[in-house]
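dumping this here before i forget
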Amino acid sequence: MADGASREDSAGWTRAVCIDCGKPFPRRSDYEQRCMICYKESKDYKLLVGDLCFEWAQRTLSGAEAQLVDVKRQLDVSNRKLSATKKKLSAKQGQTGLSPVFLKKLIMLSHPDHHDGSRVATEVTQQLLSLRSKTK
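structure:
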């Protein structure tokens, strides 16, 4: 770089928020309170193309951070819904020890129509139907 700085020199910079515009900026020293753009505007310095590139990157980063916050909020809501659904499913399975899908398969297998109207098949199917109604 022209002034002798290298990319590695930015490794120690920290993230700060500008007191004027509220956007994030890389802080080189603790005394820096304004981003490069707001600092130059406060001194009536001319903004260069590099400054405009910085402002674009700053605006893009700020938007990405806002989207990340929104996605995290949506994820939290989804996780709470998933947890509630799992609890409901566990409660239903806990009543019979059988999942609703497995219970349906048992009913289909034991149905009297598949066993020539057998009395035992009828009793078993009735019991399974009773269990199914309790899990709903």
